[in-house]
Amino acid sequence: MNGVRQRFRQEIFGDGTVFAPLVLDPLAGLLAQEFGFSAGYLSGGALGFQYAVSEALLTTTEIADAARRITSRCELPLIVDGGVGFGDPVHVVRATWEFEQAGAAAVEFEDQVAPKRVHHHIGVEHLISTDEMCAKVSAAAEARSDSDFLIIARTGAMRHEGVDRGISRLESYIDAGADVAMAFCRDQDLQKVATKISAPLATITSLDQHSRQEWKDYGWSLIIDAFTSQALWLTATRDAYRKFMQYGSTGIDIDGMKLHRELVETTGLASLLDLERRTTEAEEFDEGTD
User: Fold this and answer.
1) Is residue 80 part of a domain?
2) Strand 106-110 versus strand 150-154 pairing type
3) What single DSSP character describes residue 111?
4) Distance CA 125, CA 112 (A)
5) What pLDDT sits at residue 46?
6) What is the rounded distance in angstroms from the CA atom of residue 170 to the CA atom of residue 118?
7) Same structural domain for residues 268 and 150?
8) pLDDT of residue 288
9) Residues 227 and 273 in one domain
10) How many other CB atoms are found less than 10 A from the CB of residue 234?
11) N or C: which end of the chain has fewer CB within 10 A?
């Protein structure tokens, strides 16, 4: 796992931009890996939607278990959304332990109040003080056992207190031990923020917001899309179910056998099939060759 983290750290601190799509399960991670993404993002908000509850109700162990399932099946560096750290600095320590042990490459903590509130889903956020967040960041940095396990500090201040105040907060978080600074700002402020922040910058937005070259020119290191794949799944599934109930057919032309073969290939079942051919299914295959 150290190799995965080292590779991710090198890319984040390199000259390019890393793009990380939403990864809620091992299959999504394998798909992202197949198409060449350098990282994946386990979003608390999206996981909450997946479980039909709010992110505010998720536990440390629920998120750690989801992360462990992903990292056990693919080598894609995984960024875990640690939300508000599940409480005070001591709770941040436990979360950091759990996510690092689950094989994640990075954890993100944000400067909202704890416990997290459901209202954040509709844009109502309440920030904690800079000192409180610095204590959490410092606790996370000290708690990790692998220095390549990145600590990402996220602020909502730019949307609520202004760009300059957000920059000031992020610099304090970096001084407290954060490796990467995450913020949300307007397009016209992207370059300003990049010139003021001394650490790699990350944000959450659509992969289509800007081109890869534009993000590189802006000077941002990590672009996370925490919504597109879940939105596509919801849209496609809802449309198929609606059409079936309304018209008696989903209207989707699917080659079931082709899709099944793709799933077998993508999920890496070939080695398991080979093992059974040599053991529990050996007699069946021997008879087939007579």
Assistant:
1) yes
2) parallel
3) -
4) 7
5) 98
6) 25
7) no
8) 56
9) no
10) 11
11) C
Q: Which residue range is the domain that position 87 belongs to?
A: 2-233
Q: Read off the pLDDT of residues 48-68 as tens digits, 9 standing for 90 and up.
A: 999 999 999 999 999 999 999
- Cβ atoms of residues 114 and 135 within 8 Å: no
- The number of CA neighbours under 13 Å toward the Cβ of 225 is 17
* Residues 97 and 179 grouped into a single domain: yes
Q: Would the pTM count as exceeding 0.70?
A: yes
Query: Residue 185 is part of a domain; what is its CATH number?
Result: 3.20.20.60
Closest by CA to 83, choosing from 101, 71, 69, 99, is 99
Q: In 151-211, which ranges are continuous DSSP H helix?
A: 157-160, 163-176, 190-196
Residue type, 89: P
The residues pairing with 173 across neighbouring beta strands, listed in sequence order, are none
Percent of the chain with pLDDT over 70: 98
Q: Residue 80: in which H helix or E strand, if any?
A: strand 78-81
**DSSP three-state, residue 222:** strand
Specify the pairing of strand 78-81 against strand 40-42.
parallel
In this structure, the answer to whether residues 53 and 10 fall within a common structural domain is yes
Tokens encoding 8: 């991710």
69 CB-contact burial (10 Å; exposed 0-12 / middle 13-18 / buried 19+): middle
Do 79 and 106 form a contact (C-beta atoms < 8 A)? yes
How are beta strands 201-204 and 222-225 bridged, if at all?
parallel
Query: Which among 74, 86, 110 is positioned nearest to 202, based on CA atoms?
Result: 110
For the chain, give the number of residues: 290
E strand or H helix at 46: helix 44-50
d(CA 51, CA 54): 8
Give the Cβ contact number of residue 267 at 10 Å. Answer: 15
Interatomic CA distance for residues 156 and 127, integer angstroms: 7
Give which of 9, 207, 210, 203 is closest to 110, Cα–Cα.
Answer: 203
Q: Domain count of the chain?
A: 2
CA dihedral of 123, 84, 202, 30, whole degrees rounded to 10: -100
